[in-house]
Amino acid sequence: MKVRLFTLLLLLLLVQAPARAQTLPYQNPDLSVEERVADLLGRMSLAEKIGQMTLVEKGSIDPAAVTRYAIGGVLSGGGGYPSGNNTVEGWAEMVNAYEEAALSTPLAIPVIYGVDAVHGHAALAGAVVFPHNIGIGATRNPQLVTDIARITAQEMVATGIYWNYAPVLAVPQDIRWGRTYEGYSENTALVTELSTAALVGLQGEKLSDATSVLATPKHFVGDGGTAFGTSPVPEGLLDRGVTDVDEATLRAVHLAPYVSAIQNGARSIMVSFSSWGGKRMHGQSYLLQDVLRGELGFDGFIVSDWEALKDVAPNYADAVVLAINAGIDMNMVPYDYAGFITTLTAAVNNGEVTMERIDEAVSNILRVKFEMGLFEHPFANTDAQALVGSEAHREVARDAVRQSLVLLKNENNALPLDANASQTVFVAGPAADSLGMQSGGWTLEWQGFNQNNRTEGTTLIEALEAAFGENTEIKYSARGRYAAVNGSEAHADIGIVVVGEDPYAEYLGDSADLALSTRDIGLINNLRDKVDKLIVILLSGRPVIVDTQLNQADTFVAAWLPGSEGAGVTDVLFGGYDFVGKLPYTWPRNVGQLPFDFAHLPAEGCDAPLFPFGYGLSYASAEAAASWLELAATCAPAAS
Ligand code: GLC
Q: For the chain, what is the mean pLDDT?
């Protein structure tokens, strides 16, 4: 009796022994990826397979549940930093705990942890915040993009995250879209060049290196081509709407960047919320299967967007079946992961989703996890932690800011500024003192933030105060109020007013009027009368309607969303560097001109845009602007 009991105990121990203790074929990095996939897949139960297809927001699941459900992916959605401990160490501790939990399952398959590091690892306080893609588009510099992506990857792996929901491959066609700034440009060729450069930078020399991260070209396909007024979201206008174009246009304008991404090593692709051909993209089997997998040969994994499955059909069970059969492999179910698992399990048991389809999806996911080396290095790369927010990284970001600025107008010798002159300078606008407005959405929070004390960086007023010499009397007033001197109206040689959009993301940024705020219009009007030279700096996620203000200003600079390194702006304002930025989007004179018919844009008269794609002055070429500025002067309504 005792012998049998002992044998039974021994058997139990062997079965329960953590798989890590043994070296099974799938755990052997010397085997081919396909051999490892086949071996591991053969060992998995249906529950383990469906768990592997499940991606959950960290706020909805604790590590113990990751073990219990054998979850394959965890993410930090916008603002998903470790609460109360938004530090490198805090992130590494949080992410490592999920990895430990996953490695405690019988098969010890590491989770893949994802984040939206779309302009640096900007959810992490103290990380370098790079210009958003619209500003990067203005640089026209693919090598810079690759350098930025390399740094972003380094700052991510330091926190244990090896999966980036970037780059965005959108080709925004209507700048009233709230995600325009996430796109590099309206121009497909430029988006293709720069997004591929980003992907290459993120994935490094080898995807399995511990400083490489998995890129996720998104959102497949046509996210930037939705028609105004088709958003299915109550607060939206275009976002997640209908890409109402024929297939030839969809391919030429929106699909082309994916061809290059796949040719250059894309191994995960995120699907768009939008619709095409009468179907939600998450149920578009023609585009996901026939085109993406069949025609383009993509054999990585396809990941859904945030809770997007539920929109594919009125009934959730039907939606899950349609989406999985259409080709979705990894399902971002940020909240009700148990409901998804139950629903998909039922669909397999009743034959609506075949085991073959499940095995294909799981194989796609495992293939990429093996390619990433995730089984070999699942935890935070502590060697990279000293690099986060480093001066070297910030210098690259400062250079990116310099190259992103677009000079729209410079008259009356307003620029370059003279650091040593004896002069009075008025600075106005809350945007001059806000890292939040400099950075825009996807910075610490999903929607960004508006106080400048929440991450590290240099505001524009800090940069200006550092750059002007002792002979300059500089006065800053967010509201543009300056005390009269000796009874006479306040007056300054130079006025610098920083205006801009409050931070936003996704559908909350959709805009019908692209109007400057009345606050900003008032600041410009108010300062105009007090200064000899008026310089306007615009912080925005897209071109906005500024024709009147353009005429009031001597100098107008589009600075987009420059991020943490505000000194990159003053580097150029003081002439240390010339302006090199070129418009990545056509600038409308008024919203009545939208959506642009890019193939038939008038080049003269008030029906012409305010500025064309590619426009941008330098100190040497300011006079080249004459025709566009004359047009602005004749077509714009007078200041009110
Ligand atoms: C969002 C966005 C997507 C992002 C995802 C995770 O809704 O559409 O770009 O990667 O959710 O944060």
A: 95
pLDDT digits (tens, 9 = 90+) for 398-445: 999 999 999 999 999 999 999 999 999 999 999 999 999 999 999 999
CA of 636 to the centre of ligand 1 (A): 38
Nearest CA-CA partner of 164 in 194, 225, 123, 131: 123
Which of 132, 305, 442 is the best mutation target for the ligand 1 pocket, counting ligand atoms within 8 Å of the beta carbon and taking the most? Answer: 305
Span(s) in the chain for CATH 3.40.50.1700 = 405-634
AA letter at 324: I
Which ligand 1 atom minimizes the distance to the CA of 219?
Answer: 9
Distance 97 CA to ligand 1 centre (A): 23
Domain 405-634 has CATH 3.40.50.1700: yes
Question: Taking residues 147-152, what's their average pLDDT?
Answer: 98
Catalytic residue numbers, as ranges:
305, 506
Q: Where in the chain is the domain with CATH 3.20.20.300?
A: 24-387
For residues 380, 383, 388, 390, the Cα torsion angle rounded to the nearest 10 degrees is: 180
Question: Quick count: other Cβ atoms within 10 Å of Cβ 612?
Answer: 13
How far, in Å, from the CA of 249 to the mean position of ligand 1?
25
Mutating to test ligand 1, I would choose from 306, 311, 508, 510 the residue with most ligand atoms within 8 A of its C-beta, which is 306
Q: Which CATH class is domain 24-387?
A: alpha beta
491-503: average pLDDT: 97
| End-to-end Cα, the chain, rounded Å | 98
pLDDT higher than threshold 60 for residue 2: no
Ligand 1 pocket, 239 CB below 6 A? no
Cα of 233 vs centre of ligand 1, distance in Å, is: 15
pLDDT digits (tens, 9 = 90+) for 454-476: 899 999 999 999 999 999 999 99
Look at ligand 1, atom 1, and give the residue with the nearest C-alpha: 306
pLDDT score of 19 more than 70: no
